Amino acid sequence: MSGEGGNGRARTFAAGLILGALVGAGLALLLAPQTGAETRRTLARRARQLTGDARDRYEEARERVRRARAQRRHLRDEATGE
Predict the structure, then answer these.
(1) Per-residue pLDDT tens for 14-63?
(2) How far apart are CA 82 and CA 73, in angstroms?
(3) Would you state the pLDDT for residue 1?
(4) Rounded CA gap, 40 and 48, in Å?
(5) Is the pLDDT at 2 greater than 60, yes or no?
(6) DSSP state, 60?
(7) d(CA 6, CA 80)
(8) In this structure, what are the phi and psi dihedrals at residue 20, rounded to the nearest 5 degrees?
């Protein structure tokens, strides 16, 4: 491992996830038995869903980081007697 730890793995996973989504979307467009308008509506709806899911996951991760920082501060303060 090159010292990146979990952060590097997370970035690699995210890049793979995005690439897979793009390839899947491209294949869906090529193989979809829908009109252009139907496909655009489907893509717009799915994009809104993915945006909402990403926003939710971001907020969850942000809250976990906030709690971890608060816990670390608490433990540090306990250890130093503050």
Answers:
(1) 889 999 999 988 887 778 787 888 888 988 999 999 999 999 999 999 99
(2) 10
(3) 42
(4) 12
(5) no
(6) H
(7) 29
(8) -60, -40
Question: Which amino acid type is present at position 3?
Answer: G
**Helices 5-31 and 36-80, axial angle in degrees (round to 10):** 170
Q: pTM for the full model? A: 0.50
- Where are the alpha helices (H) located in the chain, listed in sequence order? 5-31, 36-80
From CA 7, how far away is CA 30, in angstroms rounded? Answer: 35
CA-based R_g, the chain, Å: 20
> CA 75, CA 18: separation in Å to the nearest integer?
37
CA–centroid distance for 69 within its chain: 21
- Token couple for 81: 């007697």
Cα separation of 53 and 31, whole Å?
25
